Amino acid sequence: MQVLTNTDDRLVIVHRPWAFGGLLVGAGLCMWVIAVWAPAEVDRLQQVLVAGCGTGLLACAWVFTPFTRTEFDRPRSSVTHTEIRLTGRRVQRFDLSDVLNAQVQSERPGEGGRLVRLSLRLRGGVLPLERISGPDDRRQVERLINEWLVQPR
Description:
Blueprint: E1 2-6, E2 10-15, H1 18-36, H2 44-64, E3 67-73, E4 78-85, E5 88-95, E6 99-106, E7 116-122, E8 125-128, H3 139-150
Antiparallel strand pairs: 1-2, 2-3, 3-4, 4-5, 6-7, 7-8
């Protein structure tokens, strides 16, 4: 997660999971290449299974590793969260007053929270700012968002 802009009026945070997304896409494409160019003596069922596994990895990359951009805009009193994939964009807009705070969600709270992701707590629920949990510490970004939200207007 990276902070692009941090002013009194705007806060822009992006998440670009290049490494994990690239790993999933690379592994999925490799499995497809292996399935397509398999030697003639390889059973057709094995080729289909390998291609199916490759398709599953590509689907996981599409679902779990979109690039995200979250903009907090004080003059417009809005928060815009955009998920960017090869197939298009998904934009969600919220009123800034609906944002209660940022929070780090832990996948294993009983074990010290090894896998975490950053989310916004809204009046109507929770908005994950990233689709997949990871080992990186998000507390600094969480603190920055929460401090920005309580700044005098």
